[in-house]
């Protein structure tokens, strides 16, 4: 809501709708004290390879030895149960669908006078032909600047967040009013795009110029009001640091990308170790070589489930 300055001139609002006050995702009364008790982040930690959790795994082995999954009591949750808050479903979903990549999305208003930069973790690959990504914008308080700009102009840039600028990227989620630059507040820099008008984040090792492919409005089952907008955007240009891409321009090196992922609440994570796990060999050859039919592994889907 805008206010009127003396003389009747319209004045910029102090801030935008504060979603954090509604969600209350920070579980700590004194986060500064909690953080002070924790060890320092290791910015020079190197990527390490390990074996898979069970290199000796064979067909039919199921979960690995020592995995305690039998006899565990399950809690059954109805997302539409009477009295259950929407924010409870949100917290449950974001804490269980993990890890999630974070898209730092930049847009420009239709008249070109205002930019916006904000992080979104409802983000994922969709297709490679055409190269599509999904973004979902959720929450009350009316349509956010990112959605408005994207739908009006059909353009955005997505930058992948790495650990060397996570605090700056996080600050772009502050509820600034329209027209206030998140780039400046966060201390991030803008690199001009080649095809679209929005800039991408200079500090990022990987960024994507995108054009709007399609959109889907989502409505609340409780109120009937629009509660979210999901868009598909098509990549029209990729930007990647030379040191972070293989010579064939196909694979980004995760040890150079150092991505930050999102979990539930205010929890974030990094990727410093991993293993390689090849996909299974062609089933026909394995079926014959290991005599899977004779050994009782080949069953109908109903029986096998």
TrEMBL record:
Q: Which InterPro entries match?
A: Flavin_Rdtase-like_dom, Split_barrel_FMN-bd
- Keyword list, A-Z: Flavoprotein, FMN
Q: Which GO terms describe its molecular function?
A: FMN binding
Would the keyword Membrane be found if you checked this record's keyword annotation? no
State its cofactor: FMN
Q: Which SUPFAM superfamilies match?
A: FMN-binding split barrel
Q: Where is the Flavin reductase like domain?
A: 97-245
Protein family according to the UniProt entry: Belongs to the flavoredoxin family.
**PANTHER family in the cross-refs:** FLAVIN REDUCTASE LIKE DOMAIN-CONTAINING PROTEIN (PTHR33798:SF5), FLAVOPROTEIN OXYGENASE (PTHR33798)
Name of the protein this chain belongs to: Flavo protein-like protein oxygenase
**Lineage of source species:** Eukaryota, Fungi, Dikarya, Ascomycota, Pezizomycotina
